Amino acid sequence: MTTERREDAIAILGGTGDQGLGLALRFAKAGRRVVIGSRVPERAAAAADEVKAALPNAQVSGLGNAEAAGCAPIVILSVPFEHVATTVKAIRGSLAAGQIVVSMGVPLASAVGDAAARTIGVWQGSCAELVASLLPEGVHTVSAFQNVSAHRLRELSQPVECDVVVSGSAAPRRTVMELCALVPGLRAVDGGPLSNARIVESLTALLIGLNIRLKTPEGIGIRFTGLPKDTAGTR
Question: What is the per-residue pLDDT across 4-18, written as a single tens digit (0 to 9) for each?
Fold first, then answer.
């Protein structure tokens, strides 16, 4: 796969982790080009090989983060909160106006040695707003996918029963909402402005706590009821 910019590609930085790799598998299965990024290019290449082993026809490659970020109009950040700022700073030079960076990060207290079932305060208000503050002018930030189970993403034979609240400016938000339709069972919910990400991110800590207490390692999802059809999208 070429390292040139492809309009049908999706870059996933941190695609070597469980959740990022799960999204890579799902998007590749849906026929989209996927570029997996990592701080260590060899790890990204190994993750791409794992996707190809599961999906022989997948159009997937693995590159360093900065190189991967320049290959796609949509760049998904699937890295732990403690690595978000350094990752964004490392890819700034590879980004161009009009690209969309999707923040999946959550400021879990595990970043400072505390429990993952709690969050820590972020000066900007949320991880997504932190990302927005670090990106070059003209690059859009959208918050999405924080609460989707990595385990369920990787079970390719099963739908992922979960709603995805997508927050950000209107046009980029709609573009990211459309990605949810690529994964059977996912439903995009219009989450409004990026400032709402601080609410959505806190739900992750709640779900982690529920998973621990209820002993559900496969992951609990979220569903909203009573939504008007024009405010949500599903496959």
Answer: 678 889 999 998 889
